[in-house]
Amino acid sequence: MAVTAGGCILLVALEACGQSRFAERESGDLPCTATFFDPPFDHVDPCSAEQVAVAAVETVFTYRPSEQADQGSSVKAAAPLLDVGLAARSVTSGTVLTPITGSQWQRWRSLGIAVVASVRLGEDDHLIDTHTTFARVAGVTLHPGDETETILLAAFVRASRPDSSAGWRISALEVRT
Fold this sequence. Notes:
Layout: H1 5-24, E1 26-27, E2 30-31, H2 49-60, H3 72-77, H4 84-93, H5 102-111, E3 115-121, E4 133-144, E5 151-160, E6 169-176
Antiparallel strand pairs: 1-2, 3-4, 4-5, 5-6
C-alpha cells in the first residue's frame, strides 16, 4: 500500500496531537480518563480544574438579558460544568449570585445589551489543592456591551472530583462582597 509523504505528515501530526492532549490530562499517579464535555464546552478539558473553573465562572456571569429570563439561565447553561447539587441549588438562586439589580437587568434587556464575563484565577490565598479538591479566588470582570462601566467581582470557586481519574466539576461558587 502506497502512502504519500503528505499523508504520512498528516498521520504523524494527528498522532502527536492526540498524544499531546492525553499528556496534558495526566493527574497525579493515575491518568485522568474523564470524557470530554459536549459543545459548547468541548474545548474545556475536564481533567484541568483551572479550565473547568474559568469556563464555568465565565458562563455563569455572562448574560444575554434579551434572551434570558434572569441570571439563573446563565447558571443553567453552565450546568455541565457544575456538580449535580450545585447545579440544582444555583438555578433557583442564580439571581443572588451577583449584585445585578432587577432594574439593571431590565435596562439591559430593553436595550438588547449582552454582558460578557472574563475571569482570572488568583494564585494566592487559596486552600491547598489535592488530587480531588481545588479552590481559587476568581477575579470576574463583567463587560456590558454598551458604554456602562465594567463591573468587578471577586468569587470563591471550588472544584472537586471523586478520584484523580475523574473529571472536575464546580462544587461551590460564591461572590465575595
